[in-house]
Write the structure tokens for this entry.
Amino acid sequence: MNESVTILAIETSCDETSAAVLTDGQLRSNIIASQIEIHTLYGGVVPEIASRNHLMTVSEVVDESLNRAGVSLAELNAIAVTYGPGLVGALLIGVSYAKALAFASGIPLIGVNHLAGHISANFLAGAKPPFVCLIISGGHTSIVQVKDYTEFEVLGSTRDDAAGEAFDKVARVMGLGYPGGPKLDALAQQGNPHFIEFPRVMMEENHFDFSFSGLKSAVLNYINRETMKGNEIRKADLCASFRQCISDIVTEKTIRAAKELHIDTVCICGGVSCNSLIRSEFSRKCAQNGLNLIMPEPVLCSDNAGMIASAAYYQYKKDDFADLYLNAIPSLKLS
């Protein structure tokens, strides 16, 4: 019988402090301490404040995760931690804590790429390679071919703003507050998605890259133009049109990638994959194209240690360990 594998994972790449325990690919706990209420005061994430709150919270979150899972340090086979990409100060808190814990307890250390973590959330939802995966979040928008549990090929990425970044910037200009993405999504549900036909940038080009800076500028130009004319900004319709444009772009390109590669399963992950229209449009269009669709539950799409534990489990099986010189790499790429 194969040895059972239990992993503690820590995630501090941005503004969620999270710890999770996973045994043989199954989550036993996934504790998330969000800083949304704190950063709402500033209209966005303040890196220094995020780091300080990770420092104050990480030990308590790790203890709660172990207690919730009913696991002691002595029962762990490895400690995993996100080491990039992300905010450097925030990453350093998690990496330093994990290294200290691994050293003090004599437990092996695993460094996990945050983007590999997002992909691995799909494994918790039952996905099995190969599949095509859209990572869509505040800092990243990429289409990835998942060839195996630890083997990925990036087919295309954003050349400028990520989709989530565009959502947040438009929401901020419209005075919707922070976090902008969910607030814009909620208001868009009351609007007409065809009120304005914004440009679908790079839709027809023979690659899988994205560009959202032009779309963001188009929205800002519309707002400025209407304001100068003294016209009322129809916020719900504007949000609905903007949201529809992004949804059309990401669904079209992801599905085209799957069809060109003759892969019959599509997965989506990352915080923006919680957007209600993106989820419903992927469901509809994948069904139309005879593709299987797997979407992790929303709690596994936002930043969380459960997805980091999932990635670490498959790295453990390949003896992919880190040493105590592991450092934070804020611009880490997905290889």
Remarks:
- The first strand starts at residue 6 and ends at 11.
- The beta strands are 6-11, 16-23, 26-34, 78-84, 109-113, 131-136, 141-148, 151-157, 265-269, 292-294.
